[in-house]
Amino acid sequence: MPKPPKIPESVLVVIHTPELDVLLIERADREGFWQSVTGSKERVDEPIAETAIREVAEETGIVIGGDLVPSDALVDWHHHIEFEIFSTWRHRYAEGVTHNIEHWFSLQVPERLEVTLAPLEHTAHLWLRWQEAAERCFSWSNRDAILQLPQRVKERCR
């Protein structure tokens, strides 16, 4: 049975430490393509915060809602963008779907945690200072989100 088409609504979760070290993961299907956690809704009615929590656990093994990473460490930026899906990945969506809506989140973890990658999705991970992490990302939206991180964290601390 073929996989159902992807839902063109996704999350981007920038995982970072209090010192603004950012976790990047390398795509298994594209060597050198570094990114934050991303992923699409599994169901149209899946709440977007649930998508973020699920994707973080699936892609990194980091469980949100425990002692190490409490639920309030996940911050919904209440910001989304719409972008054209790279032609390389359009076959995963229903025919005629060309754009995706991406919701931005951040997740503060207490330190540079060890992660457990989903081997079919990612092959390596790095913790980098936020500026270097932004430079390493292949996606303009991921780069922009990381560049906004210092201000977003500052605003949350007020």
UniProtKB/TrEMBL annotation:
<dbReference type="GO" id="GO:0008828">
    <property type="term" value="F:dATP diphosphatase activity"/>
</dbReference>
<dbReference type="InterPro" id="IPR003564">
    <property type="entry name" value="DHNTPase"/>
</dbReference>
<dbReference type="Pfam" id="PF00293">
    <property type="entry name" value="NUDIX"/>
</dbReference>
<feature type="binding site">
    <location>
        <begin position="83"/>
        <end position="86"/>
    </location>
    <ligand>
        <name>substrate</name>
    </ligand>
</feature>
<feature type="binding site">
    <location>
        <position position="55"/>
    </location>
    <ligand>
        <name>Mg(2+)</name>
    </ligand>
</feature>
<feature type="binding site">
    <location>
        <position position="121"/>
    </location>
    <ligand>
        <name>Mg(2+)</name>
    </ligand>
</feature>
<dbReference type="GO" id="GO:0046656">
    <property type="term" value="P:folic acid biosynthetic process"/>
</dbReference>
<keyword id="KW-0479">Metal-binding</keyword>
<feature type="binding site">
    <location>
        <position position="38"/>
    </location>
    <ligand>
        <name>substrate</name>
    </ligand>
</feature>
<feature type="binding site">
    <location>
        <position position="59"/>
    </location>
    <ligand>
        <name>Mg(2+)</name>
    </ligand>
</feature>
<feature type="domain" description="Nudix hydrolase">
    <location>
        <begin position="5"/>
        <end position="150"/>
    </location>
</feature>
<keyword id="KW-0378">Hydrolase</keyword>
<dbReference type="InterPro" id="IPR000086">
    <property type="entry name" value="NUDIX_hydrolase_dom"/>
</dbReference>
<dbReference type="GO" id="GO:0046872">
    <property type="term" value="F:metal ion binding"/>
</dbReference>
<dbReference type="InterPro" id="IPR015797">
    <property type="entry name" value="NUDIX_hydrolase-like_dom_sf"/>
</dbReference>
<protein>
    <submittedName>
        <fullName>Dihydroneopterin triphosphate diphosphatase</fullName>
        <ecNumber>3.6.1.67</ecNumber>
    </submittedName>
</protein>
<feature type="binding site">
    <location>
        <position position="27"/>
    </location>
    <ligand>
        <name>substrate</name>
    </ligand>
</feature>
<feature type="binding site">
    <location>
        <position position="139"/>
    </location>
    <ligand>
        <name>substrate</name>
    </ligand>
</feature>
<feature type="binding site">
    <location>
        <position position="6"/>
    </location>
    <ligand>
        <name>substrate</name>
    </ligand>
</feature>
<keyword id="KW-0460">Magnesium</keyword>
<dbReference type="GO" id="GO:0019177">
    <property type="term" value="F:dihydroneopterin triphosphate pyrophosphohydrolase activity"/>
</dbReference>
